[in-house]
Specification:
alpha/beta, six-stranded parallel sheet, six-stranded mixed sheet, 14 strands
């Protein structure tokens, strides 16, 4: 299906640096330490132990756990610190894993995910001499806990618009792992982007899997069941959707399986990845990934550790936005030739309008 009011032409001239991702610099956290050819940075961090605890998705989830862990590894290389990690296989591992990090003597422990909030709060209260940072949660108000949060609805808005603009069937879809704010914020932004496309062009692209007004939609109930993700995606494809965005960590690999099979059977179906650039991290089906809604978690994790190494830790939340580069839309990569020729310039305009406050992307889960 093509929408009539804004005529798109096909072309291959889109920039690989969509939305200027490579030029974005984090703000809101301490600046990284200056380079020192004498090796002073490494020496300064040599007695520092930085640690991380994953949620049940594990560090190889090709999503937010992995991105956060890569930030810790980069801090190890750049700052010369020691590191330790604990990978959670289930929620029952959260308490023992965080306790293990504390007992190891970690200067700062990064906990990854909203689901670790209660465990992180309890550990921080019991160990006020240790510092913590938690990714994707802003519920803890303690002097030794720094929230790392993201207004991902902003970048998801751009993805929703791009999906609506490129859909051939006039139906797109999204689903989640668990119905929690760090998942629904993506789905809300995506829904608003689709709605904005319809308003601007007179189109009628339908969104399956999520109703923003009622906050009801399709959820797997976990972040591990890739088979359920595949089934959900097959159902959406059978209903006519040709672009699907899973917000479900490793469950999203099931979506890629379904998309690969659908294309092999002669359909034209694409996926949108979340958290990281799926073209670089998903490990399969890259050619069918339209774009990704990215949270630059690795950059934020390294920056928080750097600030702590310098002795400048504070509990002011880091909030990633389009403006400071904490969230972004990934390049179209192999799909560049298949998107409307003027779509990139439209997305650039929309990004600037969001930054300027001319467009407000509204999600109940957005950082306040």
């Amino acid at each position: 299906m093509k929408n009539s009011l804004r005529k798109f032409s096909r072309g291959t001239g889109l920039s690989a640096a969509v939305l200027g991702v490579s030029a974005l610099v984090l703000s809101g956290c301490g600046a990284p330490p200056a380079e020192d050819s004498s090796g002073g940075g490494a020496e300064a961090g040599s007695d520092y132990l930085g640690c991380i605890v994953s949620d049940s998705g594990g560090f190889d989830d090709r999503s937010f756990n992995q991105s956060s862990y890569e930030g810790l590894k980069k801090a190890e290389a750049d700052l010369g610190i020691e590191i330790n990690q604990a990978e959670s296989q289930a929620e029952t591992d959260f308490g023992p894993n965080v306790d293990q990090m504390v007992q190891t003597g970690c200067n700062l422990t990064v906990t990854v995910g909203f689901l670790l909030a209660d465990t992180t709060k309890a550990a921080a209260e019991q160990n006020p001499e240790a510092n913590f940072a938690i990714v994707d949660d802003n519920s803890i108000d303690l002097p030794n806990v720094k929230p790392i949060i993201y207004d991902t609805a902003q970048a998801a808005f751009l993805a929703g618009y791009a999906a609506a603009a490129t859909s051939e069937t006039g139906k797109v879809a999204t689903y989640g792992g668990i119905n929690i704010p760090t998942v629904t914020i993506f789905m809300d932004g995506f829904a608003e982007g689709v709605a904005h496309f319809n308003e601007e062009t007179g189109g009628d692209v339908q969104l399956l899997g999520w109703d923003k007004e009622s906050q009801n939609g399709t959820f797997v109930g976990n972040f591990e069941d890739a088979a359920a993700g595949k089934t959900n995606t097959q159902n959406f494809i059978n209903e006519g959707a040709d672009i699907i965005m899973p917000v479900a960590g490793p469950v999203g690999s099931g979506t890629l399986d379904a998309v690969i099979e659908a294309n092999a059977a002669g359909k034209d179906v694409k996926a949108i990845w979340v958290d990281s650039d799926g073209y670089e991290t998903a490990g399969k089906g890259e050619e069918f990934i339209l774009t990704s809604v990215m949270k630059l978690m690795g950059d934020a994790v390294e920056d928080v550790i750097s600030t702590d190494v310098e002795g400048n830790f504070d509990n002011t939340p880091y909030v990633g936005t389009l403006e400071n580069g904490g969230v972004a839309l990934a390049p179209f990569h192999d799909q560049e030739a298949n998107v409307p020729a003027d779509l990139q310039s439209i997305l650039d305009e929309l990004k600037e309008q969001i930054i300027a406050g001319e467009i407000t992307v509204d999600s109940a889960a957005s950082p306040k």
